Amino acid sequence: MATVQDFSGYTPTWCSGCGNWGIGRAVMSSLVEQQLDPSQVMMIFDIGCSGNMNDFVNAYAMHSLHGRSIANAVGAKLANHQLPVLVVGGDGALYGEGGNHFLHACRGNHDITVIVHDNRVYGLTKGQVSPSADKGYVSKTTPAGIIEAPVHPLLLAITQGATFVAQTFAGNQLHLTQTITAAMQHKGFSVVNVLQPCVTFNKVNTYGYYFQKSYQLKDHDASNFEAALKVAAKPLVEKFPLGVIYQVERPAYHQQLPQLAETALVKRTKPAEAGQFIAAFT
């Protein structure tokens, strides 16, 4: 059976104390717990500090263009729907540049797991505000405070069709690992929003901040749409629920395509008569 060491690539270059360290370890621990090895999982990484995990995790992987990781993951899953597919990216890439892909992947209920490093800033480019930053947040590029209201990722995912929506915290390794595992075991579009402190550029949303303001969900019916909305709709600056907020069973996108019912596309041989069709377009 594979070990965490088998999944370990180059030594990470993240800042000391960065939440990415905990997320990276949790991803690898979850893969080991599921008895997968590096050849049995596909990981699509976006751009940013989180995306640099592409070099630090050993697996079949791709470093996408900024905001395009979900689009690539959808393609990978359709080509080989028998392969677990993970997306790793930041809140800027997935809720900002790639927000359109996020929305439509929710609608399609594509069977991929999206792990969002939500630190409310663009860490790799020196701390500009991301879509999840609080209104009024001050940065080098918004010295008077950001004007826009923040994107509410949990509500967005639930209302647009995601069938697994959870939130966890980079400072709680056990809960983080368990949540990633649960998301991967779910058949359908799974979103794991990880509250991830950026120790270099975000001096507001720190480890202490989240330890004080987060709470574990108890006696919550994750299959109840209205109950999930009620939990997810709480103001982002008050309390942060940790756990599975919404989970329902619904056919995934690839399960509704009869042409994928038997064999993955990548395992099929080219039809013998394909030549005549190719010749018609050459």
Roughly what is the average pLDDT, rounded to an integer?
94
Number of domains: 1
The tally of helices reads 10
Strand-residue fraction?
Answer: 15-25%
CATH class equals Alpha Beta
Helix content: 25-40%
Distance linking N and C termini: 48 Å
Q: How is the main sheet built?
A: 8 strands, mixed
| CATH homologous group name | Thiamin diphosphate (ThDP)-binding fold, Pyr/PP domains
Description:
The protein has an 8-stranded mixed β-sheet, sandwiched between helices. β9, α9 and β10 form a beta-alpha-beta unit. α2 packs across α7. It is an alpha/beta fold and 282 residues long. 44% of the residues are buried. It has a single domain, classed as 3-Layer(aba) Sandwich (Rossmann fold). The chain contains 10 helices and 10 strands. The termini are far apart. It is globular.
Question: How would you concisely characterize the structure shown here?
Answer:
With 282 residues, the chain is of the alpha/beta class.
Relevant terms:
282 residues, alpha/beta, Rossmann fold, two-stranded antiparallel ribbon, 10 helices, 10 strands
List the helices and strands and how they pair.
Layout: H1 4-7, H2 19-33, E1 42-45, E2 60-63, H3 69-79, E3 85-90, H4 91-97, H5 99-108, E4 113-118, E5 121-122, E6 128-129, H6 153-160, E7 164-169, H7 173-185, E8 190-195, H8 207-213, E9 214-216, H9 225-232, E10 240-247, H10 274-279
Parallel strand pairs: 1-2, 1-3, 3-4, 4-8, 7-8, 9-10
Antiparallel strand pairs: 5-6, 7-10
Helix pairs in contact: 2-7, 4-5, 5-6, 6-9
